[in-house]
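Possible race condition, two jobs.
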Amino acid sequence: MKKILLIGSLVLGLSVILAACASQATEQVEDQASEQVQEQVPDPIVYTIDMSEYAFAPNSLAAQVGQEVTINLVNSGALEHEIMFGRDVMFTENGRPHGFEHDMFEEAGMEPEVMHMEASEGEHMEDEMDDDGHMEDHSGFMVVLPVGDETASFTFTVTEDMLGEWEIGCFLLDGVHYDSGMKGKFTVTN
């Protein structure tokens, strides 16, 4: 009988020790998983895109899901320029490029807030797309920058809905800017 009690006590003691070890191991795994998630969030990135005749510089941008991206726009050209992000170029009845069938920001369910700044005055104002006359010409998110000292900036966090390769383009002057080379790419990876 003493042997049975001794064996029972040993089994009970061993069970308590194993349960404590399993609990500690579970906590360590959870801590490691939490640290890995924190490590996977990429650092914010800032791009300054110079818009000119007829190019974006740089014309190739890359980001990762979860990354905060700030895009600063400068128009150093002699003409007004715009930037749009999308896939599948649409064409007008006369065969001219007209915008993108799939807008990147619309697909992601967001519309970044655009801030314009007059370099000479240092004043900020919200984007006023309705007054530029281009909203009726194109659909989707776009930023139009007139000639002069005005710059624009917008920030967004990349989502899984943005995975893949997107195109950037300017479709002003009935698509002449786009056809003349004012295009590029925006690649999103995990």
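Job #2 (started ~2 s after job #1):
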Amino acid sequence: MSADRGIPKAEIHVHIGGAAPPALARRLAARNGLRIDPALFASETTYAWRDFPDFLRAFDAASAVFRKPVDLRDLVYDYLGACAREGAIYVEFFASPDHAADCGISYAGHLQGLIDGIDDAERDFGIVGRIVMICVRHLGPDRALALARRMKAEPHPYVVGIGMGGDETRFHCRDFAPAYRIAADMGLGCTVHAGEIVGAESVRAALDGLPVTRIGHGVRAIEDRRLVDRIAREGIVLEVCPGSNLALKVFPDAAAHPLRRLIDAGCRVSVSSDDPPFFDTSIGREYRRAAEDFELDRRALLSLTRTAIEGSFADRATKSRLLARVAEAADQRL
């Protein structure tokens, strides 16, 4: 019996632009009259890359096939459907208007495609989706500020937060504080990638410089016990992606990965898939990994889901509805 059987799942750290399997990327490229380099693919289900900078290159190449709002609708619909089939009830995904703009899609068109995919998936699969608009760190703080201003000018209830990905070695978190202040003043949630490629000091800079309640990855906080204690004390939710961390060699193997140690230290932890076809994973596989590699039992797996939903940026009514589904599953005896 699968370790995650009957566990309702939720993920709050997945880049929707990095969630298209090769088959969908090929289909959209053909639909849009684009040539896609066969060397981009490692297999029928995964992409080829060598290291973190090369991963970013491959990500950009794969996401370049999205040229119309309907492409984004199809991506979101397909991804949420796949998650629902693995038992997921909530997905809060990152979307990059900067990548969309590079492909000629306006902010409004980008957003509409995402909304259509969310609505169609909830109708057909019963899964709830929400959006965190993400700026790209290595593009600089001015682009982040422009994004925040656009989010303020064109709000939508499905856009629940702001985040930042990209090259963690570039700029300082405080450089992006003006953009984050706009979002926070709107009542949006705030998260940021930190403590993945760069060490514990990156997490500390994020907590000191930005109004975040979550950290994307954050796993290298384990290098500083006082920082781990702070994360636990302040109730910061860590968006941990073990499969991604292992694929990118942040840690050499599961035995070295700190997921269990962070939980044991009292940190609030969720698990997510990050960029699933790049790392040969899925939300279902991440829950199975949590059970099998980190020896989390049914109660602990349910806690991962509960933490993801409680730490999500969804509105209170949506959270209550989702948490009721988790509570119902917790009462069941398989």
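The chain has a mean pLDDT of 95.
Logs attached separately.
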